[in-house]
Amino acid sequence: MALLIERYSVPEMEAVWSDESRFGRWLEIELLAVEARVRLGQVPAADFDKLRAGAVFDPARIAEIESVVRHDVIAFLTCVSEGLGPEARHIHYGMTSSDILDTALATQIRDAGKLVAAALDRYCGELEGLVRRGRGVACIGRTHGMHAEPTTLALKFAGHLAEARRCVPRLDRALETASTAKLSGAVGTYAHLDPFVEEFVCSRLGLRREDVATQVVARDRIAELVWALAMISGALERFATEVRHLQRTEVGEVEESFGKGQKGSSAMPHKRNPVQSERLCGFARLMRGWLAAAMENTALWHERDISHSSVERFILPDAFGVSLYSLERAAELAGGLVVFEDRVAANLGSAGDSHLSQTVMLALIDRGMGRIEAYEAVQAAAAEAARSGRGFLAAAAGSPVIAGLVGPSELEALCSVDRQLRNEALILSRLGIE
Questions:
Q1: What is the model's pLDDT at position 389?
Q2: Is 115 inside a domain boundary?
């Protein structure tokens, strides 16, 4: 199967998708199927003992045979049979290639999924640490890239933590759905194989059985899996995009950790670029492309064609590989993120007090003014502040319309940052952060 390029590969994931692993799974399934038939009284136990003792494979020999027969499963079966006697006739009895391919794939999905799930858990843990570090650190919130109202770094990153946690049950469901096997023959009818064989193999491997199979397991299961992985990648992209924007020179509130000896630019020695975050954004683009390919694979002809096979040999190892690598890097990013609280405070202060416009408008409404009139009065005060260079609250206090209902001291009390952020603890408690 195709594997992620070495630059972005993780050895544990490579091992799941290696040829050695794949052939080993094929052989295990073949032997389990024979064992099931022994229990049915269809194969002599002595023959099974010989198979279990003598069945081996050689990847190089399989490749040699495949170059002639141009069929990977036939090449595998031929290689295994070469080292056996008459007992080889029991291998692959009543089965079709996809019985082996899809069942082995289900075990690979399960094992690769465990790696991704563990990495997702680590990422959530690092994000939670980042949220805890940001409690009480007031910052300016931004909508449309513009200053809006104050929030805190904890609340900013809490949204990313909540999204990451939502990825957990999505991934679990998708892995359960995709870890589905079938050993039901050429068109799924068990024409030459007792259904007990499938039941036995699935039980031993810890897989679910495809309820209604064709020659293959239904590919909507794979599409849902790739969707779940793409959703994880999208969550990482959103976090990475936040970091990229906050690290811009003009903002400068956070910075990716920068290792000793690390270089940022071949031309400009001063550069410290958010390369980890940019890489995560690039991976998300790949994941969405692979999702489109997985969706295309669902509409196979009749009881099956092979158009999905070449696609999956690329996208599944790579989608899992990218997911694991991305989560590991994202965990490092969250855990090592440097926060410059002086810049956070400076940016909050640079907004002046115009971000308090809604607070003043609501104070007028609370005192009986209509919403439209209150909006226009506050808008006029903001425009006056911009023209005169005075602060917004000073302009509001100087407005007869506003000052007639809300005095300067009352305005100051209403507009304190602490008052605006008084519900931080309540919101964080919803994530179990006290």
A1: 79
A2: yes
DSSP 14-74: HHHHSHHHHHHHHHHHHHHHHHHHHHTTSS-HHHHHHHHHH----HHHHHHHHHHH--HHH
| Residue 244 CB contacts under 8 Å (≥ 6 apart), including other chains | 274, 277, 278, 281
Does residue 303 fall inside a structural domain? yes
Q: Write the single-letter amino acid at 169.
A: P
**pTM for this model (two decimals):** 0.91
SS3 88: helix
Last residue of a domain, one of 303, 325, 346: 346
Residue 142 in contact with residue 351, Cβ under 8 Å?
no
CATH number at residue 148: 1.20.200.10
Residues of the chain with pLDDT under 50: 265-267
Q: What is the pLDDT of residue 419?
A: 85
Q: Are residues 405 and 310 in the same domain?
A: no
205 and 232 in a single domain? The answer is: yes
The answer to whether residue 421 is domain-embedded is: no
pLDDT of 388: 85
Domain-located, residue 420:
no
CA distance 186 to 233: 36
- CA 406 – CA 394 distance, rounded (Å): 12
Count of domains observed in the chain: 2
- Phi/psi zone of residue 177: left (φ > 0), alpha (ψ -120 to 50 degrees), beta? alpha
Give the number of C-alpha atoms closer than 13 A to the C-alpha of residue 226, restricted to the C-beta side. 27
Domain region containing 66? 6-256+268-346
Kindly calculate the radius of gyration of the chain based on its CA atoms and give it in whole angstroms: 30
Contact residues for 208 (Cβ-Cβ < 8 A; gap 6+) = 176, 179, 180, 181, 202
What is the spatial distance between Cα 238 and Cα 228, in angstroms, rounded to a whole number? 16
- Give the Cα separation of 325 and 306 in Å (integer): 30
Instruction: Give me the active site residues, please.
Output: 144, 265
Region at 271 (left for phi over 0; alpha for psi -120 to 50; beta for the rest): beta
How much is the pLDDT for 266? Answer: 47
Gap between the Cα atoms of 396 and 412, Å rounded: 11
Inter-CA distances, 195 with 33, 88, 94, 175, 232, Å: 11, 22, 11, 24, 37
Answer yes or no: do 34 and 124 share one domain. yes
